[in-house]
């Protein structure tokens, strides 16, 4: 291991510590941007003159672009060098953040969010790769622990920071604040990490596979995003997008399974443990992220909460996770990871059932309690699932499996966002129609009229009450469906065989 010793000797302990802090900060910024816009969607929608449904494209466009770019990370690192790719990605992320903040139309904002996602995709795995490269084995766990804490802190800080900025400044600043951090990380990376740059080589890229990947994912996501506004399969455009996404996916799978150097190595799915763990991860992460999307919108549009307080309610889950993350890591060495995962996912499902009984009269503490208690279980499914999935593949396949895992997790958040908002909107319409049928407006109108309200005021008041109750019934339905999905996921994980021996999770991101 003389080569490794030579790399470690190139950096002094002080330089290594500073570099570790810069890499953790860069990871925090990218993870933060995944959730910081969630609570700001109503503000952005109002300012740009679009519906909140259209505003969610800001979330999904970033997630999809990031997911598409993740499989390219390994090729980019081999072709241009880890430090160079990290630096350019940070610079691009900062540039597109400024352009997002300057956007005046939805089209411009979505395009710039796609640019953000493309540049942000390599930052997370590259920061982890560089940490593994600059820290010797005896201090690596501590460095990776610091990095993992930023991954958990991002979802916690995102809604609070986004809410505070939207309420007190302007939504534009949720993007502008990335610029000084990006500039700091670019200059620090050049000053501190240049001695540990990796060697480069001209490596062939699977251009056909990449093109097919972009094609079918784009068709699928556009279909999911605009389907709500086009009455789904009643519109020929949606049918065409669905056919193109399905055909593109089939051709992509066939090509990747026969390609010698695929952009996404689908062969790892032959391992039952990996497949079941990844399926469980996508269901759990999708259900968890769905609540991060719908809760702040419901609180702001229907319950009268400011973006700041909506962010606090949303962030309580991730805050609680910070307390149990070290315990989950220690228990991994002594406990069957399938048991930890199954119990944790079932716990989150029970919390989702609890939230399925929320009413329009619920107070802050009534919402905060299940949100906070749910957070204790997060590390017990997230950390063991990573180990279980990577422990089910061959050591030579670990990097490919880790990249595929991150790709599926990111896609799950984008697809879940579209699906849950569709279900929420449909449930609202059904509940509103059912309540309208059983209302007895004559009695209500005579009662309100005796209080001195005009006919217009009475009609508006009844309409507001019906809308508020229909919205809360719809969100309860979303939570109930999420609970069922989580209970199914808790059972599926047992299809995976128990991992044996130590698992190298250094390639996970």
Gyration radius, rounded: 24 Å
The CATH class designation of the largest domain is Mainly Alpha
Oligomer: single chain
- Structural class, by secondary structure, is mainly alpha
**Average residue-wise pLDDT:** 79
Low-confidence stretches: 503-509
**How many DSSP E strands?**
0
Order of helices and strands: HHHHHHHHHHHHHHHHHHHHHH
Quick one: CATH superfamily of the largest domain?
A: MFS general substrate transporter like domains
- Helicity range of the residues? over 70%
What shape does the CA trace take?
globular
- What share of residues are in beta strands? under 5%
Membrane topology: Multi-pass membrane protein
GO molecular function, one term: transmembrane transporter activity
Keywords: Cell membrane, Membrane, Transmembrane, Transmembrane helix, Transport
Main location: membrane
Descriptive tags:
509 residues; mainly alpha; Growth Hormone, Chain: A; 3 domains; 22 helices; globular; disordered C terminus
């Amino acid at each position: 291991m003389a080569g490794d010793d030579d790399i470690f000797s190139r950096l002094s302990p002080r330089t290594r510590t500073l570099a570790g802090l810069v890499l953790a900060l860069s990871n925090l910024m990218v993870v933060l941007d995944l959730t910081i816009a969630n609570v700001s969607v109503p503000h952005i929608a109002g300012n740009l003159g679009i519906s909140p449904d259209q505003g969610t494209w800001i979330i999904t466009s970033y997630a999809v672009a990031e997911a598409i770019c993740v499989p390219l990370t390994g090729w980019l690192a081999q072709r241009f060098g880890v430090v160079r790719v990290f630096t350019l990605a940070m610079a691009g992320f900062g540039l597109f953040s400024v352009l997002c903040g300057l956007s005046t139309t939805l089209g411009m904002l979505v395009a710039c969010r796609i640019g953000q996602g493309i540049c942000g995709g390599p930052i997370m795995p590259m920061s982890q790769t560089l940490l593994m490269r600059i820290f010797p084995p005896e201090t690596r766990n501590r460095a990776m622990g610091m990095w993992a804490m930023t991954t958990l802190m991002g979802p916690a800080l995102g809604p609070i920071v986004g809410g505070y900025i939207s309420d007190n400044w302007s939504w534009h600043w949720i993007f502008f604040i990335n610029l000084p951090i990006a500039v700091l990380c670019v200059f620090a990376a050049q000053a501190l990490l240049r001695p540990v740059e990796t060697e480069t080589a001209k490596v062939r890229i699977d251009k056909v596979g990449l093109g097919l990947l972009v094609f079918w994912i784009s068709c699928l996501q556009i279909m999911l995003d605009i389907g709500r506004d086009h009455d789904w399969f009643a519109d020929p455009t949606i049918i065409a997008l669905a056919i193109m996404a399905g055909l593109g996916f089939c051709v992509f799978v066939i090509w990747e399974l026969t390609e010698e150097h695929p952009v996404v190595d689908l062969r790892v799915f032959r391992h039952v443990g990996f497949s079941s763990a990844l399926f469980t991860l996508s269901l759990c992460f999708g259900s968890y992220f769905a609540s991060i999307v719908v809760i702040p919108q419901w609180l702001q549009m229907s319950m009268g909460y400011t973006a700041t307080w909506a962010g606090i309610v949303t962030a309580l889950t991730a805050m609680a996770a910070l307390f149990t993350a070290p315990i989950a890591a220690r228990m991994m060495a002594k406990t069957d990871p399938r048991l930890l995962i199954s119990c944790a996912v079932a716990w989150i499902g029970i919390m989702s059932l609890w939230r399925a009984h929320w009413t329009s009269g619920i107070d802050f503490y009534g919402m905060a309690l299940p949100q906070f208690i749910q957070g204790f279980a997060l590390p017990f499914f997230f950390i063991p699932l990573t180990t279980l999935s990577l422990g089910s593949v061959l050591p030579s396949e670990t990097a490919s499996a880790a990249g595929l895992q991150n790709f599926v997790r990111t896609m799950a958040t984008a697809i879940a966002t579209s699906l849950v908002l569709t279900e929420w909107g449909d449930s609202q319409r059904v509940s509103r129609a059912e309540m309208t049928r059983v209302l007895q407006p004559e009695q209500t109108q005579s009662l309100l009229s005796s209080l001195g309200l005009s006919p217009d005021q009475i009609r508006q008041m009844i309409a507001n009450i019906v809308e508020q109750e229909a919205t809360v019934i719809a969100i309860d339905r979303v939570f109930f469906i999420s609970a069922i999905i989580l209970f199914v996921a808790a059972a599926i994980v047992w299809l995976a065989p128990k991992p044996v021996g130590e698992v190298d999770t250094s390639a996970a991101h």
